[in-house]
């Protein structure tokens, strides 16, 4: 049985529907990320899990017990919220000890636990500092240690790294992953940063307009998204218009070429319009071989962006497409020239257009 089961949860504020039809199960020890644009309901769900927000509908179960209306302090969850500041007048050690004192732990046990937590987050030498004497990253580590100290069933984190600069954010991402591994605690993590979600999660629940659009391991969502929203939200993508061939509905015609694409249960009819997507890193230069999909395109622009070149192409149908290539491979991409390009068929996605059925 899953540790946490959310069933048909909804939250409405006056006229605003913040969440609807949320179903999500989280296994013990999992790292699940709630990812989505601003206002999509991530914080509302986390607050409902924490017990700070009362859902309008649905249930939350922990170990099979209904906790939808249980007080926050009786849920035994740890929180690391953005702006959920450290106590400024307490030392690092006392910040971490705070939740243990509230839970009436014995003094000696508190001392042992505080020093364990300090070494877990690598702050052994800073126990007596006050929060204002710490860097942003160090403060965040204390906040995490404080939330983990009492041994929560689940750690809820709402954009805990968003105030940190890029370098520190990446360091802290690794740190959080390590803490997750070492403690075995279940993490429910909120972010609107898709790279962070991909790098950290066992599974990602992608939110849009108060709903979970898709849920799955990062690799599956990235490689095989089943919605246009996820195909565009997770990583960079090219969307091109296409259609089922008039003479053979098993074939797709798009960007001036034609290729076979497996049918979804005979729904497609000849001529049906489609959206074809292909990621910039999956477009290569050169003649297609084997079952590769070949097409010709005009190079519009070639920009050096560090490790890779970003090539802007114009297809035979007049649409634009971005390809990212390593510099050696990009020398052939001279602006103004028409070049041969190729794509592995497994890298192509085809989505039905709204008008031609789902
Ligand atoms: N207390 C409230 N009263 C009224 N509306 C609210 C309240 N809290 C949230 N909302 C609305 O609910 C929706 C979801 O908000 P929520 O904070 O869950 O989004 P989010 O996904 O966390 O966004 P962000 O990435 O910006 O933090 C938004 O439209 C928001 O305006
Ligand atoms: Mg939020």
Automatic annotation (TrEMBL):
One of its GO terms (biological process) is putrescine transport. One of its GO terms (molecular function) is transmembrane transporter activity. Residues 4-234 form the ABC transporter domain. It is an enzyme of class 3 (hydrolase). PROSITE patterns: ABC_TRANSPORTER_1, ABC_TRANSPORTER_2. InterPro entries: AAA+_ATPase, ABC_SmlMolc_Importer, ABC_transporter-like_ATP-bd, ABC_transporter-like_CS, Mo/tungstate-bd_C_term_dom, P-loop_NTPase, Transp-assoc_OB_typ2. Keywords: ATP-binding, Hydrolase, Nucleotide-binding, Transport. Its EC number is 3.6.3.31. Transmembrane segments: none annotated. SMART domains: AAA (SM00382). Gene3D superfamilies: 2.40.50.100, P-loop containing nucleotide triphosphate hydrolases. One of its GO terms (cellular component) is ATP-binding cassette (ABC) transporter complex. It comes from the Bacteria. Belongs to the ABC transporter superfamily. PANTHER family: SPERMIDINE/PUTRESCINE IMPORT ATP-BINDING PROTEIN POTA, SPERMIDINE_PUTRESCINE IMPORT ATP-BINDING PROTEIN POTA. This is Spermidine/putrescine import ATP-binding protein potA. It comes from Mesorhizobium metallidurans STM 2683. The lineage of its organism: Bacteria, Pseudomonadati, Pseudomonadota, Alphaproteobacteria, Hyphomicrobiales. The gene is potA.
